[in-house]
Each structure stands twice: as C-alpha cells, then as structure tokens.
Amino acid sequence: MRGTQLGRPPRVLVTKIGFDGHDRGSRIVAAFLRDAGMEVIYTGPWQKIPAVVQMALEEDVDVVGVSSLATDHLIVPKLVTAMREAELGHVAVIVGGIVPEDEEAGLLEAGVARIFHPGVPREEIIRTVLDLTVQARAALDAA
Amino acid sequence: MSQKPVQLPLPGFEAARADWRAQYEAQMGADRTVRNRSGIEVKPLYTPDDWSSARYMDDLGFPGQPPMTRGIYPTMHRGRTWSQRQLIGFGTPEDFNGRFLKLLDAGATAGSLIPCNSVFRGYDCDEVDEELLGTCGTVINSVDHMATALRDVPLDRISMAMNDPVPFTLLAFMLGVAQRRGIPWQKITGTSNQSDYISHFIANHMFFRIALPGSRRVLVDHVAFCQEKVPGWNPVSVVGQHMQQGGAAPAEAMALTLCTAIQYVQDCVDRGMDPDKFLPRFTFFFDISVSFFEEVAKFRAGRRLWQRIVRERFGAEDPKAWRFKFHGQTSGVDLTRQQPLNNIARVTVQAMAGIFGGLQSLHTDSYDEVLSVPTERAARIAVATQNILKEESHLTDVIDPLGGSFYVEAMTDAMEERIAAIIEQIDKAGGMFAAAQAGIPQTYCGDSGLAFQEKVETGEETIVGVNKYLSEDEEDVDVQPLERPDPAVMGAHIKDFQAWKAARDQGAVQAALDALARAATSEPAGLETNTFGKLVEAAIAGATHGEICHTLRRELGFGDPLVMP
Q1: Which of A9, B211, B250, B470 is deepest in the core (most CB within 10 A)?
Q2: Between the CA atoms of B182, B187, B188 and B191, what dihedral angle is there, to the nearest 10 degrees?
C-alpha cells in the first residue's frame, strides 16, 4: 500500500465526542483502517474535546476521525478550533456518519477535511486517510 | 427443537421430488449456497420432509397456549391489533407537547418519550454543550418540565413508553405529575423502555449511566417498587434492538436478549420476588431487519423458548408469566441515505415481518431517519404505513398466518437451535452479567457487524441504491429543510430552569438527595432502602435529573463501557 511510501504508516485517532454511544460505525472503520496497515488509536465514545486534543498531541496522529450518529457533529467545529489552538492545525479532522446535507457546508467551512456518509466504500475512506496523511506530514515539514 | 422428519406416507412424493430436483439442477447449473444473516443455510424448497403437521401440538399448539409459537393471546391481532407507538422527542417540553397532541389526534394510541441525549447521559441542560440540546430528544430535567410535556395528555388513559434508562428519572417525574393532578399511580400504564442496562453496557452506550453493579441494584429496586406502587407499569423491557443494531445477527440478538432476561429474572428471584408476580410485567424490545422470513422465525422461536425457560428454570406457573410480550422497531440500520424514499418500502417489509412475528407494539421508522431526526411529514407517513398495514391490507384477519409453512416452521426450528446454543454458551460463562463483563456479547456484535459490512462491500448482500441500482441523478434525494431547535428558545429554557432551581426549597432537595444516597449505600431491605422510591421522593421535592444521576454515580460508580475496537 501507499503507506510504505510514507516511511511509516498513517496514525489515526478514531473517536466519538458528545453524548451518543452508537459505536458500530467507529468500530468497523477502526478495524478496516487497521487491516489496511494503519496505526489506529480507538477511544470509545463520549470523549471530551480537550481529551481528544491531548491524545492527538501525545499520539502524534496524522488524522482524527470523528464518528457521529446523533448530532454530535454539531460540536466538531469546537474540536477543530481546539486543535488549532493546540498547534495541531496540520492534523486532518474527518467526520463519518449521519450528517444532514444542509449542515455539511458549515462543517467544511469550520475546517473539517472530509465528511463520509453511510454507504461509502471502505477503499474511499482508506485512500482519503492516506492522502490526508501525506498532506498532514507535508504541512508539518513546511512549518 | 429440531426433530427427525416424520415418515412420509404421501404417494408419489419421492419420485416427484427426484424429478423436481433433476429439473432444478439442470436449470440452475451451479447453485450458490444461500445463508440468512444468522448464518443458517436456506434451501431452495421446503416440503413435509422439513416440517410436518404431525408435529403440530408439540411445535405450535394454539394461540395463547404453550408452546406459544402462534402468539401469546388467544385472539392476537384479530382481536386487538398492536399499539402504534411512535418515538417522539425534540426540542423543549413545549415542542414535545405540541407534537404529541398532534400524533394523538392522528390516531396514535400510545406515547413514547425520547429525551435529549444529554438526559440519556445523566446531565441537566445547564451543564452541557448547548449546540446539542434538544437535537435528538426533549430536554426534560424536572417534574415541572414533565408537566409541560404532558399537558392535556390523559395520563390515566394513555400508555406511555419512557425511554428512561437506570435510574428511571423520567418515570419519577411522570409520577410527580400524576400526583399533582390527583391521578392515582395505580392508573399509570406504560413501560420503562430503556431499562436494560446490560444491553447499554454491551451495545448502546448512550444510555449507560451508572456502573454495572449499581445499575443492577437500581433495576431490581425499580421492579420491586413498581410491583407495589405502580402495578400497571412494565418496569423491565429487555432490549434486543441494541445488540442487533450493534451488529449481532438476528439469532444472536435474540439469544443474547433472552440471556439478559434470564439474568434479570434471576436477580429478582434472588431478592425474594415471585416470578409469577413480576414476570407478567416483563417486556421485550426488538429490532426488525428487512430479512423478512428470518425475522418472522426469530420472533416465533424466541417466544417458544421464553415460555420454556420461565417454566423450566424459574417454575413460573401463571400463564400470564409465560407471555413473551414484545415491541418491535423497524431497523434503522437497513435504511439508506441514498434514494431515501426507498426506505418507506423497507420499513413496510420490516413492519410486516414484525406483525407476522406476533408483536404487541410497533414503531415504524420515518424514511428520513438516516438523514436527521424525523421531519413531521416523514413521521406522518410512518404512522400511515402502520394504518395501511393494520386496516387496509387484511394482514390481521388470521392469527399467525405463516404458521404451518414448511419453510417458516423449519426456519423457526433452525433459529431456535442456534439461539439455544448461544444461551448454553452464556450459561457456561456464568450468565449474562459475567459474560458482558468478559466481552463475549460484544464480540458477537463486532464480528457479525464486520462480516455483514464485508458482504455488502462484496455485493453478496444487495442494498438497493448503495451497491446496486445506483442512481446518478441525485435529484432523487428529496430532503426537507432540517428542523433544529431554535437556539433562542433553548437558551430561554435553560435560563428558566436555572431560575426555577434557585427558587426551590434547597433544604428539602438536599435532604431528599441525602436520603437517596443513604439508600444506595444500604443493603436492600424493603421500601426504606429502595433507591427508586427514594429518587421519586427526591424528584417530587424538586431534585433535578442531573442531581439524581450525580448522587447515584457518586455512590454507585460511573458507567463506562468496555471499549473493544
């Protein structure tokens, strides 16, 4: 896989913030990213935003994937802001799950790199995470 | 259980079958093995070789009689159709009240209250991210809030399902409202719809508030309190839905649900309670997937097993205690974001599987649930779907209409065998409480969920609009503008709540919370140490949802799921 071109495999934090605990989606995505050779840190649900930022920092991740089923995507902009404040602006934040169409633009404007809706093939998610890892590392090198 | 096929005296059967098989094989070529979601092989044809009415009395019997396969009541849907129980919950208590009264006008015969996720997690509205308030359910934190939500609702005539996990504050608030209105608690009917803390620990962590041992204590207290004070209330709803939505295959979900129910019955028996008294108030809640015949067989097998379990393991003698009463909800997991109007067809098939499975109460999902919290138009179509199935399609004319089908009976047997094998495994692991702590059911959910996803990706399982019949034309997607709570209205709701809190009799609230804490740390011994009874008193004294949950978490521990990636 292209991860080998990266020198070391992508490191991805898969998490859920807010109140909801439906974790089937996040568990499946975490499992197939790991199967694709990535290093996955899986947190389980209900993470507080400062805790996610702290983990992203300590684990030196390239991408943070937030799974949302029941409107927790509404506080993802707060996570993006908190990451920028912690000088983690190069780390891509992606969201997967139930995101209503008319709220997508708001998330992208807030700095979310990509939104995945149900039914997306896993290859597309894997490819996107690889691309975002390349970008994240380039941005870090440039900084 | 599966038995040897009976001797077939049918003249010409063998020769005709051999002839059919030869023709079938010639036309099919290399036939593929078909398996249902539970992994059970499905043959192309079922005959009296698979099931014969010679086994009628052992396997089926009559409705309302053991082994209950054909239904728990003599009249089933011909006598009384199922309750239409649509989940509603959105915004403030005022918003809930408006929508609930409309649904009652539209023909709903029972209510279901979904609180905000902040409530599910055990917090009040003034201690969480405001952006999330009321987006998935109603923000109800006190008896006052509940009084608004249920204004003009005839509490003594409408059966309410409270989506109310341990420690059951919503029921406490409703009892407070009934007391204010002078309605005796004996007249309150309904169900604590999210009482199954084990399923929350395993698969739907959203509802999991208090650590496992504490949840176990409060649930048994709740059953004991309701038996004495609110006898028309169903204090336990064992939730198979969470396991199936969490990935478990239908047979696995049924098995794990029965194991959970066995655990709760055992815990009540250990407290000295009589199964013939509390079992008639046990209920179940299941997911209904679109795998039609598998779901019908799942429900019939589960019903047959349950009556055997309560009679053989627990010695229940009252036929009312043998009834496997269940609510079904069409599965949201099967709904697709692509071509969302197709979901109306899926919901119809799912609902029919539940009806033929013999359910007592039904929620049909709105087609737009995969896009957002249901809009009013979509919710109306979901109710209309039920009305069409109930009154227009003649589905309810005959009791257990699929009974006696060679396929349905053979599949019911096969599902029962698979379910019984898993129950045996959990028994060996020390019962469901221990198995959940060891992660056994979580593994079922994780493995089967992933396996299904892989079948969708390879195309082995077809999902229209997702892996087949994709539409290039995204005009198909008919999305209504999203309804989110008005931030100004929600802001005012929080301000009112804080002002109300400041004006309460703080001494009375604190004394009631202290009494609750004392009960939680005492050995269970009657109503004096009943945690649920004490929290009803606290709610009536003005304690809020968050205060009650925090008190119990302090004494009994915080609920954290077992994280299994």
Answers
A1: B250
A2: 170
